[in-house]
Amino acid sequence: MEILYCGKNDLSSLNIKRINDLTQAETDDVVYVSPGISDKIGDLEYFIKNTTPGNWAAYSVIENKGLPLFNFENKKTEILNQDYADGGLEIGLYRGNKKFISQILEKKTLGPMDFVFMGPPRNDYNQKRPAMFLDRDGIINKDHGYSIDKNMTELIPGIGDLIRWANQNNMYVCVLTNQSGVARGLYTEAELKDYHLYLENLLLRDQAYVDSWEYCPYHFKEGIDHYAKKSFCRKPWPGMALKACELFPIDLGQSIMIGDKLSDALDIKGLRNFHLKGQYELSGSKNPIFNKISEVIGYLS
Question: Residue 137 catalytic?
């Protein structure tokens, strides 16, 4: 059996070698490139940049659809699409030690590993593209105050359609959310990240892909301990958007921001701000206001 292999010394040049056995790999840090994705250099580059030696990581896709098949987080494995589970292992990118890669090749139980969310294929990773920045509460999920209760979670109608529209139109999708609940001591950053993973999985079931979840845990008045401070990342300041630009080659001047509060509007040259009418007062807004997400899609299309 021929194995496509990218060793540690070859990562910078993305030099893919063909070997017949894992024993021929000169390092225990192995990136296995399946034949179904070996020609997608953008995917490979993105995968390598977002994984680290010593960690196990996987990116499986359904051929020609770019759908993440397996989702790994906190040593829990969830198969997102059982229908493709048997054959999906042959299509993807995998990083780990030789023992882990051998399990992949033999289609054994995957076991615990670190999750690396890849999103849609990134064949144009080095090319700048616009982003769709989204507020969370009131845009992604219904706003229940300072709550990350999964049992209370309801997605906003149409949000999957909006994110999928952005995916199909070659835009990055980044959530930018002020989370003073962390500052107030209502929940921890770890609990918040777990909740974002939960939301991400709900959206994935609708084939809607979020590239990153950025949050600001500070509040200068209500914060506790080191969370009590002013922060450039808190909207309307653009810090979270700039952080997303460190992760992806985003063209800010062609990007858009959608929120349900006046404070969600970002003051960035060229960026277009939109508001979705919800439970907050929007009088005085100088930006387009929509009553439902389908109107946003229609306006952008």
Answer: yes
Tell whether 148 and 283 lie within a shared domain.
Answer: yes
For 89-141, write each residue's pLDDT tens digit.
444 667 777 776 776 666 544 443 333 334 444 445 557 889 999 999 999 99
Catalytic annotation present for 135: yes
Q: Indicate whether 122 belongs to any domain.
A: no
Each residue's pLDDT tens digit, 136-176: 999 999 998 888 889 999 999 999 999 989 988 889 899 99
pTM equals 0.64
Domain count, the chain: 2
Active site residue: 137, 143, 211, 260, which one? 137
**CATH at 217:** 3.40.50.1000
265 lies in which domain range? 131-300
Place of tokens 């770890």: 190
Q: Please pick, among 29, 43, 135, 264, the residue that the annotation labels catalytic.
A: 135
